[in-house]
From TrEMBL:
Annotated segments matching region Disordered: 1-55
InterPro entries assigned: EDR2-like, EDR2_C, START-like_dom_sf, START_lipid-bd_dom
Record's compositionally biased regions (Basic and acidic residues): 1-11
Lineage, uppermost ranks: Eukaryota, Viridiplantae, Streptophyta, Embryophyta, Tracheophyta
Residue stretches making up the START domain: 251-436
Family matches, as Pfam families: EDR2_C, START
Protein name, as recorded: START domain-containing protein
Low complexity bias locations: 15-28
Amino acid sequence: MASRVKFKEVGSEGGTSESGDSESGSEGRPTNNFDNNDHGDKNNRSNNDNDGSASGGGGEKFEYFGWVYHLGVNSIGHEYCHLRFLFIRGKRVEMYKRDPHEDPSAKPIRRGVVGPTLMVEELGRRKVNLNDFYVLRFYNRLDEARKGEIACAKAGDARKWMEAFDHAKQQVDYELSRGGRARNKLNMEDEINLEGHRPKVRRYARGLKKLIRIGQGPEMLLRRSSSLGAGGRSDAYFDADSGDVVEAHEWKCVRTMGGVRIFEDVSNSKSGKGILVKAVGVVDASADTVFEIVLSLDRNTRYEWDTLTGDLEMLDSINGHYDVVYGTFDPRYLTWWQTKRDFIFSRQWFRGQDGTYTILQFPCEHKKRPSRSGYERTIINPSTWEISNLSISSSSNTARCLVTQMLEISPKGWHKWRNNHSQKFEKTVPYALLSQVAGLKEYVGANPALTSLSSTTVFQSKISHFSSSSSEFEDSEVADEFYDAISADSSSEDEDDDNDMEVNKDKKIKLKNISWAIAGLALKRTSAPDTNKELNSNEPPINLDPSQFYGSMRRAKDDADTNCWSSLDGTGFMIRGKTYLKDSTKVKGGEPLLKLIAVDWFKVDNSVTKVALHPKSLVQTAAGKKLPFILVINLEVPAKPNYSLVLYYAADRPVNKNSLLGKFANGTDSFRDSRFKLIPSIAEGYWMVKRAVGTKACKLGKAVTCKYLRQDNFLEIDIDIGSSSVARGVIGLVLGYITSIVVDLAIVIEAQAEEELPEYILGTVRLNRLRLESAVPLEV
């Protein structure tokens, strides 16, 4: 689920042209999605000094650099926070004490390469010396003991560094795809060392306040604008509600106020239960900026836009993506009540692969704040924020984002207000919450500094052609250790925005969703797999008799059955159509290529892998060994105890080696990570869980650690959901409602080249109101 981004490519005649994102190429070439509008002179000098002239079209070399904070523990056990200048050149990463642009004699104190097994996880916000920072964790997915952390002052900067490291991994994938000498050279290079301290280190930072007084680095970090990501997004309209699942909501605009539209979900308005409503507005600032404004508890800032929750206090910070907040308000301006009110709510937030920020707010209780004398405890309505970047106008440097606040309210009073029969609703807490989007819009509009496209840290990037030869990387220097700490403790944006626009200086703007007519046609068309293309048509299909295969979870008898699984067609999911690379049209999926034959639901003390090799696995049965091909999906669910949901998909004929499925089954782990997508959907259940899970495809190899086992007639994919703090938070919420929700999943191998289109659904499953206690122990 990620945004489509553009990069500037230097043409053969010295001009520039816009190229597509990394999805559009099938050769795995690295791309750069950051322009360098600011600091252009310095970047041009760097181009001349370091790169020389372009000597071929073998790929794009990119460089990203800027100040970060390096967090860790030194050799004598002291935690430190070092200010460091981080530099990414292609696949190489270097860390300096000083900016090498200003001090050419500066030598890197750490250096290494970004290996194919490097994972970058977003840990969210953390207090470091009384300041809030956004922390990124680096680890090797084959050895998670090797890890380290850096921190950024802004959420947007953390996102940009994640994109930069993802592009470095694309560089590695490109070199691996070239094979031969380049591959051998890469295998000989030292990957970034993610563990241990440098033996020569004898001192550590005494604190962030002291670091701010040292040199000009920290002041640059706080004051200079950024060009990393400037102009990175194309002129594209992004709908926060668009996804890869056909949803049942039917939103109707019932009011507009202050440039904000108020919607009601009319599909469930007659159910007699709560009404789902939302306020939607366009704010002239980046999603990163708005996210930090909404999350901020600063009293003076909240008073500028929030009419209700202005007085807030942090009670507890559970992790970087979850906290508990206490607030008070005087309700006299809302109602005739004289009693002061207080409330407690928890906040959980994360950023999707498409760049959308989601904040979930639940009412809760906390032992630090029992009921107070003189205050009446109020239960604040559960609500969500969704903040998504919109297009950037080619004629201005102003970022925009779409802000959606959604909440569930009682029907009493709502219908009268909606129909202009009563104004009493405007004196209620739900109305004050719905007014927050309008207040936020006006607050940002009144503060021009917030509308700047660039964020507030110094990041710079440059792009230049590099030769297709491998001589660039054939130096004899030995890479030093990169990290000097063991940490105290996942994205790039690869998915595409459905409602994107492409801009070319020599062409007119082309809307990818041109009209309602085209959108209607897209919904009517379906994409069925070409079985002759993916499976061997020369072999007769075998009969996949469901009675021959058994798992620990039973198959559903009917739609009303619970604690069971069923297979479903792919028409509820949206995938890439035949013309996707030209117009971004998505179509409904068709029948899955593979058939779901069994599901296991295991309870384990520790997460397990290589389930297919277990003697009692379906793969090892006589019936399983006769199958031409089995895809085993092992979802490792972190909990107490842990669980494993194992899905077995079978093909009725052998897989063509040259097909997309054949390349996926027999390819490299990097190729699999770049193609393996999961589309989730909560078909039935609590609306807050639906918003948390979302409906957009996720590249699991980019979000969590995936391990692959290819043997005999099967491919097993072990998906460690617990390897991402964000994924752990979402799955924890899902498990809390697991007995009352229906979960639909679709598996897709992403098509990135025209000959691979249209996409097809590889497999699906519906999990109907599972019970945790029904999981059976797995003897390891």
